[in-house]
Structure formats: structure tokens, C-alpha cells
Amino acid sequence: MSATGRGGAIAAVMAAMALLVAACGDDNPPAADAEEPRDEAFGHIHGLGVVDDMLYVATHHGLFTVSSDGKAVMASEDDHDFMGFTVTDTGELLASGHPNSRRDLPAHLGLLESTDGGATWNELSLSGEVDFHALDARSGSVYGRDSASGQLLGSTDRRSWSQLGQIPLADVAISPDDGATLIITTEEGPQLSADAGEEFAVIDGAPVLMLADWPRTDLLYGISPDGIVHHSTDSGATWKERGRLGAQPQAMTVSADGTIYVALEGAIVASSDGGDTFTQYYTAP
Hints:
Elements: H1 3-23, E1 45-51, E2 54-59, E3 62-66, E4 72-74, E5 81-87, E6 93-98, E7 111-114, E8 122-125, E9 132-138, E10 141-146, E11 151-155, E12 162-166, E13 171-174, E14 182-185, E15 191-193, E16 201-202, E17 211-216, E18 219-223, E19 228-232, E20 240-244, E21 251-254, E22 260-264, E23 267-271, E24 279-283
Antiparallel strand pairs: 1-2, 2-3, 3-4, 5-6, 6-7, 7-8, 9-10, 10-11, 11-12, 13-14, 14-15, 15-16, 17-18, 18-19, 19-20, 21-22, 22-23, 23-24
């Protein structure tokens, strides 16, 4: 990428991250209207994940499932603003964010876990202290960025945490082979750490990415702020450009079979050919 092109991409990342922060709302959102219909458009999407071919969608108004027929159903009575969300490689759902209608919970939810498809949530750690935004869990490790402090935090037991520094980042993806190896997306380009986040180095020649997901060794995908899909089969050392979404992404996930799901404004699209082409999976009513 030329210096001019990379500079433009960096500016796009900064603008995109600013938009994401603006979409998050404040730390004390108003209570949701109890009469608000839950099957309508769920607003900004903060995270996606797949369990047993079911797509989970973490939004400003709760967690939803979206089936292949395009129907969205709320997964839980809890309408939390799920700012951070991920599906572990062992099938649990992890999340963070703020409560909406519930007043018996702190403003920062810390790390929550669900083992029943999001129907109920257990408080694991950092309740009242941390609001994770970027969040990933794989290979026995969890990493997340606390929106309040800017700290990247890491854990191997989901209860005790290490502070890894205030690193401006948009997303984090953990190697499926090693929980101490992770990639973060930053305005300088993706950065790789092989020591559990103690040190990071920019990956030379890599495209500037906003989102990334890494479910298998050969399935490392990233999306640039302007919607260009990139794929790496060698842990990010080299990248191949795939398709173009034509819009800024809000969230992404890649299932174990290689299907890519991307949330756009008002829609979710999916690709079964490695990101070359995308079809509509869900359209907001």
C-alpha cells in the first residue's frame, strides 16, 4: 500500500472508531420502554457469533438470534446494551456492556457468561468496574478493551485479569492455536503479539483493518473501514484482498465452516465463498 493510500486508510480507521464510540451511547443509558416491540429493528450491532448454525446478534437493545429465514428473535428478557460480545471456541457466550431496563445491576456489567444460548447470564468478574467493547475468547484466553480506562485486559480463567496497557484499538482476534498469540486492529494497521499482549508489533505490509476474526489457522479474516474484505492463511504475515462490501462494517464473525457474517447499517450479509461475494442474510424491518 502506498504512503498516501495507507494514510487515507488510517484516517478512515480513526473516523470509523469515532463513529463506533458515538454509537455506543453514554455509560448510563435511559431505561428501555417496557412496551417496545422486541422483534423490530434492533439498532446498532456491536457483535456477532455463531453456535450450532445459529447466528447471535449483540445489539444496543439486547441479544437476538437470527435464523436463516431472516427472522430475528430476542434471546433473553435482559435487554442489555451488549457493547462487547463473543462466542468462545467451546460454545459459551461472553458479553459486557450496560443494563438498559434493569436497575438492580451496575452501569458496567464486567464479564458475563451464558451457557444456555443467552437466555440467562452469570456475572463472572469485574462487575461494576469494566465495560468491555472489543472482546474475544479462544484457546483458553480472553482479551478485551475496557472502554472507560482504555486498558487492554487479558485473562486465562475469566476471573483474574492482567492489565496490558492503554492501546487504541478497534478489535481483537486470538489465534485458534495459541491463547498467547493475538492480533489487534489499530490505526497503524494490525498488530501481532506472541506473548499474551505484553508486546505488540505492527505487521509489515498488512492492510489497515477495522475488524478481524480468526476461528481456524487458515481462516483469519479482516475488514477495512471502507468494507474491503481481506484474508490471511499464514497468521497475518500475508493478506489477499477478497470482495468489497460497499459500506462500513459494524461487526463480523466467521463460523467454523468458513461462512462470514458481517453487520452493516440496517442489514447482515453472509458469504460462503471466502468473502468474494455476499448475499443478504437479514434486513431490518
